[in-house]
Write a structure and sequence with these properties.
Structural class: mainly beta
Strand order of the largest sheet: 1-2-3-4-5-6-7-8-9-11-12-13-14-15-16-17
Order of helices and strands: HEEEEEEEEEEEEEHEEEEEEEEEEEHEE
Strand content: over 45%
Number of strands: 26
Helix content: under 10%
Shape: globular
Largest sheet: 16 strands, antiparallel, barrel
Length: 387
C-alpha cells in the first residue's frame, strides 16, 4: 500500500506541475500561473486542510524543451520551499530547497523519445541512474518505447538492479499518453493513462494541464484503480479556480482547489546591458534585491563578456545551466567579481565543466580563452587567462 500511495502522489505532482503554467504571456499581461493550492485529504470520513501559496520570481516558456521556472512556496502548516527548474534542449536542471534539506537533479533526455537517459540527484549523497531506451514501433502516430534501468550508483557504490522491472511508454506528438510498468518477470503491475480535461476554459488557459487514471493489475495493490477529475469553480479574465478530485476505487480520497491567476513574475527578466548601459542581447537576467543573476546566455558564441553591472546593479551570480549547450565559446571576459559561493556545480554545465570556473576563481577579473571549444566528444576544454 505504501508503494502505491507513493506512486499516486508522484503522478499527482507531475500532473499538477505540468498544469501550473501557460504557454504564452497573454500579450504581455502575464502568464497563467498557480498562486494558491488548497488540499483536502479524506481519511475514514474526516478531512484535513492545508493551503500552499506560490510566489513567482521568474517564469519563461518558449517550448517544452526551453523554459525557466523559479518560485517559492509557503504553507499554512508552517513549511516553506524554493524551486528552480531550467530545461534547455536535451538537458534540464532542477533545485529544491525545503526547511529540512536541499536537493538538485540533472537530467539528460533521449532525443527521439524524450524519455530520461540519465539522472543525477544530489541530496544527502549522490545518486546516478542511467537507462536503456528501445523503440517498439509506431502505430498510427503513437510511438511505443521500452525503458529499463541500465545502472544505479549510490554514493559511488553500484546497486543491484537484477530485481528491477521495466516501463513502456506510448507517446503521441511528443507527449506521453500512457505508461505501463512491468515487474522483473514481465508481468504488468499497473498502467497510467494521461488525458486532457474536457472543460474548454482549462484547455484554453492551461493547454498542458493533465489528468491521470491508473489501473492496478498486480494483486499486491489494495485497490484496482485511481483517477482524477477536474471542474471549474470560477472563471474570469484574471483568475481560474479548478477543483481536482482523486478517487480510489470510485471513493473520494483527496481534493485540491488550485487557483491560477494572470501573473507577471516579480523578478525582472530581460536583456542584459554592459557597464556603459549599452544593450547586450546575449543575456537574460533577473533582479534579486540589489543584485543581478544571469539566467541564460542567448548569444551566438565566440567572444562573450559578462558585465560587472546591469542597470546599475552588480552581477553577483550565474544561474545553473545558464551556458548549457553553448558549444562555440572561445573567449569569456569577466568585468566584475562573482563570489565563489555563487558558482555551483552547473553554471558552466557542458561548455566548461568547471575548468573556467576554477581558473576565474583563481585569477579573477580578466579575459579567458580556449583553443578547444566544447565539441561532441570533448566536454572539458582548458581555459587560459590572458595577460
Amino acid at each position: 500500500m505504501k508503494n502505491k500511495l507513493l506512486l499516486v502522489a508522484l503522478v499527482a505532482v507531475i500532473a499538477f506541475s505540468m498544469a501550473a503554467c501557460s504557454d504564452d504571456d497573454g500579450g504581455g499581461s502575464g502568464y497563467w500561473l498557480i498562486s494558491k493550492s488548497t488540499s483536502y485529504a479524506v481519511t475514514e470520513g474526516t478531512s484535513g486542510l492545508a493551503e500552499t501559496y506560490y510566489y513567482w520570481i521568474v517564469y519563461h516558456y518558449s517550448n517544452e524543451k526551453d523554459y525557466l521556472e523559479d518560485y517559492t512556496t509557503s504553507s499554512t502548516t508552517g513549511s516553506t520551499a524554493s524551486y528552480r527548474y531550467n530545461r534547455k534542449g536535451q538537458t534540464s536542471y532542477s533545485y529544491t530547497e525545503t526547511d529540512a534539506e536541499s536537493s538538485s537533479t540533472e537530467t539528460l533526455y533521449d532525443a527521439e523519445s524524450g524519455l530520461t537517459l540519465k539522472q543525477t540527484t544530489n541530496s544527502s549523497g549522490i545518486t546516478e541512474i542511467s537507462y536503456n531506451i528501445v523503440s517498439l514501433g509506431d502505430s498510427g502516430g503513437v510511438k511505443t518505447y521500452r525503458q529499463n534501468i541500465n545502472s544505479y550508483v549510490n554514493n559511488g557504490t553500484p546497486i543491484d538492479i537484477s530485481a528491477q522491472g521495466y516501463s513502456e511508454y506510448k507517446i503521441q506528438n511528443g507527449k506521453t499518453i500512457e505508461a505501463s510498468y512491468y515487474d522483473t518477470n514481465s508481468v504488468l503491475s499497473y498502467t497510467i493513462k494521461y488525458t486532457k480535461p474536457e472543460n474548454k476554459a482549462i484547455r484554453n488557459k492551461l493547454p498542458r494541464f493533465t489528468l491521470y487514471r491508473t489501473n492496478y493489475s498486480s494483486p499486491s495493490y489494495s485497490i484496482n484503480n485511481s483517477y482524477q477529475t477536474a471542474e471549474v469553480l470560477s472563471d474570469s479574465d484574471s483568475a481560474l479556480l479548478i477543483r481536482i478530485k482523486t478517487f480510489n476505487d470510485n471513493i473520494l480520497s483527496s481534493q485540491t482547489d488550485n487557483l491560477y491567476e494572470k501573473i507577471k513574475p516579480s523578478g525582472s527578466y530581460g536583456g542584459g546591458y554592459d557597464n556603459n548601459g549599452k544593450s547586450n542581447s546575449d543575456f537574460t537576467y533577473r533582479v534579486y534585491g540589489n543584485s543581478i543573476t544571469i539566467i541564460e546566455y542567448t548569444g551566438k558564441g565566440g567572444n562573450v563578456t559578462i558585465p560587472a553591472q546591469i542597470n546599475g546593479k552588480p552581477v553577483t551570480r550565474i544561474w545553473d545551466m545558464a551556458f548549457n549547450g553553448c558549444t562555440s565559446l572561445t573567449s569569456v571576459t569577466f568585468q566584475g567579481t562573482i563570489p565563489s559561493e555563487n558558482f555551483g556545480s552547473n553554471e558552466w554545465y557542458q561548455p566548461f565543466e568547471g575548468d573556467l570556473r576554477d581558473k576565474y576563481l583563481a585569477g579573477g577579473i580578466g579575459t579567458y580563452t580556449t583553443t578547444t571549444p566544447v565539441q561532441e566528444n570533448f566536454w572539458n576544454p582548458v581555459w587560459t587567462k590572458q595577460p
